[in-house]
Amino acid sequence: MKYNALGNSGLSVSELGFGTWAIGGDWGTHSDEEALKGLDRAMDAGVNFFDTADVYGGGHSEELLAKATKGKEDKIHIATKFIRNGDINDPSNYSEELIRSYLENSLRRLNREQIDLYQIHCAPLDMLKNTDVFPILDKLKQEGKIRSYGVSVETDEEGLYVLEHTDASALQVIFNLLRQKPLKELFPKAQETGVGILARVPLASGLLTGKFSKDHSFEENDHRNFNKDGNAFNVGETFGGLPFETGVELSDQLKWIGDDRGSMTRAALKWVMQQEAVTSVIPGFKNEQQVIDNLKSLDVPPFSKDELEKLNTFYWNNVHDHIRGAY
C-alpha cells in the first residue's frame, strides 16, 4: 500500500481508502455484518483512511466505524462531514452553536476525542463565502477537537474558492473516468497550494463496473433510483451527473480498459490513483467481496501515456456535454 500526505493535515493516508455511504444507507439493502467484515478486510490490507458523514444512515456509518476501529484509533484515520443535518441554505445552520453540536454528535458516535478530518458537506458557495464556518473550524482546530478540516464540493468553482481563501487541508471532489473536468484547473491549483484531493464517486455510482444494462432497476431506497435526475440532492452525486442510459452507453465504450487489468472496476480505480494530484480514492462498498475486488486495483498495470491521452480525448469529445448540473 502506498501512503500519501493529506495536504498540511499531518496525516499520511492510504492511496486507496473507502467511503461508507453505502453501508450507512441510501444504497438499497445492506448488512452490518458484511459491512464490518469489509472494514476489517480493508484494514488488514493496509487501508488506514475511511470517509463518512453524520447523515449516512442517520449516523449509522459512523457507529459502524467506531466498532471496526476500536483500539486502532491512533492508526486508522476517519474523515466525517457535517452541515446537512440542517438546511444547507440557511445561514443560521452555520452558527458556532450548531456546528459544535454536529461535531459532538459525530465524536460520540465515532467514540473518539478528535476528528482527523472534519469536512463541510457540500454547502452552497454563498454559504462558504458569507458565513463564519471557516473561522469556526479554525477555532475547533486550535482547541484540538479536530485535527484538520476540509470541504466536500460539488463544483470546481466552490473548490477554487476554498483553495484561494481558506486553510483547508483537503478537498473532496467527484472525479472519475466519466467526470474528468477537475484535471483542467482545480487539480493543478490544489497541487500549487498543497491541498489534498479525495476522489469520491470514482466508479460513477457503479457505471464503471460495466455490470449495468439500460433496463436495470434499482431498489426504491437506493439513491440511484430516487435521485437519478437530482430530485433529492445534487444530480452529480448519482452517476456523476450523467443520465443513466447515456452513462451505460458510455461505460460500454470503455470496457477495453479492463482487458489487461482484470475488470473495469479495478482499471477505473487505478486510473484515479494514477492522477498525481489525487491523495486518496474512496470507493464505496456494501460487502467484503467488493472490498477484496477494489483492493486488487492496487496491483493492476498502470495506464500508458497513449491510453491516458485516449481517455482524456474520449471524455471531452463524448462525455462532458452530457453531464447535468453545475460542476
Structural features:
327 residues; alpha/beta; TIM Barrel; eight-stranded parallel sheet; two-stranded antiparallel sheet; 10 strands; 37% helix; 12% strand; AKR; NAD(P)_OxRdtase_dom_sf; AKR2_Oxidoreductase
What is the radius of gyration? 18 Å
Extract low-pLDDT stretches. Answer: none
Shape: globular
Order of helices and strands: EEEHHEHEHEHHEHEHEHHHEHH
Mean pLDDT: 96
CATH homology-level superfamily: NADP-dependent oxidoreductase domain
Give the amount of beta strand, in percent.
5-15%
Taken together, the total number of domains comes to: 1
CATH class: Alpha Beta
Largest sheet: 8 strands, parallel
Indicate the CATH topology.
TIM Barrel
Q: State the end-to-end distance.
A: 31 Å
Helix content: 25-40%
Structural class: alpha/beta
Individual helix count: 13
The CATH architecture can be named as: Alpha-Beta Barrel
The oligomerization state is single chain
β-strand number: 10
Side by side, the strands of the main sheet go: 3-4-5-6-7-8-9-10
Pfam family, one: Aldo_ket_red
GO molecular function: oxidoreductase activity
Domain NADP-dependent oxidoreductase: 15-312
InterPro entries: AKR, AKR2_Oxidoreductase, NAD(P)_OxRdtase_dom_sf, NADP_OxRdtase_dom
What's this model, at a glance?
The chain contains 13 helices and ten strands. It is α/β, with parallel strands linked by helices and 327 residues long.
